[in-house]
Design a protein that fits this description.
10 helices; alpha/beta; binds NADPH dihydro-nicotinamide-adenine-dinucleotide phosphate; single chain; binds oxalic acid; 5-stranded parallel sheet
């Protein structure tokens, strides 16, 4: 059985070493453009590969995305028809929940104001509403959105979420489908986007959507937070709404083009927190265990887990 690794911006050698250590009876090769591979390929491990990889690598039986998102693969016209498996792992989920909870609390507890005051050596208290007065809404209630929603509910926020199919999550008001989208937005003070990038979600969060967020929240204007994918948002609209005060704040980990351009107005937009796609930097050892476990199970005849639905794109 053989594994091929095709990655950009990841350490291919380290991935190869980890897979060899876990599956010593498998051959592991690294794909490099124009360099022929030896023999058949059973499994391909891919992260933002050069599209030529799919022309040069013999048809694999399974493709593994080395991340939770698969938009980097779904956009490739020559993606093989083999099952496409994505990462679902606690080492990733818990990190994402940390980032989301931290950003929600940062805006809720007015941390940017206190940070600016500290720079001025200014001792000045501001009114602090309780979490139970603040309505957080999550776009996406999947592996990541569901976990973050539960954590925020435990802190005491009024939590709701929106997904494609209806869901039941204790302590979380669940909305589903386009017909309930506006209702969900109207009750939301802090919007957290954890949607995958698909044809249906591309450019979804624009001025029209953000203008539907609650205008009567205890903090005043709403806040927008995104750690899903930048392609689901309109960045010019967000920058303008932060500047005009239509948005009180934002926390953005993902952008349509990464790295974010040096001249993007988002860097200096008031109340905007920017992190460089690190919300859920995950542990490569844990992800390698997950992939090796899936390969072992597959070879014993067990079904693959977390296979992407090609029709919906996630
Ligand atoms: P899941 O597939 O588990 O969840 C996706 C959620 O989005 C589901 O609740 C799904 O609805 C919902 N959804 C998808 N399309 C629509 C739509 N058209 N309308 C309404 N709801 C929709 O994904 P994960 O939670 O594991 O990951 C989410 C995304 O987070 C990834 O795709 C990736 O892009 C991003 N990510 C970012 C990271 C970072 O460091 N910034 C790290 C890891 C992931 P339903 O439940 O009905 O299917
Ligand atoms: C992922 C990511 O999709 O890191 O896992 O964005």
């Amino acid at each position: 059985m053989s594994i091929v690794i095709a990655v950009t911006n990841f350490n291919a050698e380290a991935w190869a070493d980890r897979m060899k250590a876990r599956l010593p009876d498998h051959s592991v090769q690294i794909w490099r453009k124009g360099e022929p591979l030896e023999g058949e390929v059973d499994y391909m491990l891919a992260w933002k590969p050069d599209p030529a990889a799919f022309d040069e690598v013999p048809q694999p039986k399974v493709v593994f995305s080395l991340g939770a998102g698969v938009d980097h693969l779904m956009k490739m016209p020559n993606l093989p028809q083999a099952p496409l498996v994505r990462i679902v792992d606690p080492s990733l989920t818990t990190r994402m929940t940390e980032w989301v909870v931290f950003q929600v609390l940062l805006h809720h507890r007015n941390h940017l104001t206190y940070d600016a005051q500290q720079a001025e050596h200014l001792w000045k208290a501001h009114a602090q509403p309780q979490a139970s007065k603040v309505r957080v809404g999550l776009l996406g209630l999947g592996e990541l959105g569901g976990d973050a929603a539960r954590a925020l509910a435990r802190i005491g926020f009024q939590v709701a979420g929106w997904s494609r199919r209806s869901k039941v999550i204790e302590g979380v008001k669940c909305y589903a489908g386009e017909e309930r989208f506006d209702e969900f937005l109207h009750r939301t003070d802090i919007l957290v986007n954890l949607l995958p990038l698909t044809p249906d979600t591309k450019g979804l969060v624009d001025r029209a959507v953000l203008s539907k967020l609650a205008q009567n929240g205890v903090h005043g204007a709403p806040v927008y937070i995104n750690a899903g994918r930048g392609g689901t948002q309109n960045e010019a609209d967000i920058a303008e709404m932060l500047t005009s005060g239509a948005l009180r704040g934002a926390s953005l980990d993902v952008f349509e083009t990464e790295p974010l351009a040096e001249d993007s107005p988002l860097w200096d937009a008031p109340g905007c927190v920017i992190t460089p796609h690190v919300a859920a930097e995950s542990d490569p050892e844990a992800l390698s265990d997950y992939i090796a476990g899936q390969i072992r199970g597959y070879e014993q005849g067990l079904p693959l887990q977390n296979v992407v639905d090609r029709k919906t794109g996630y």
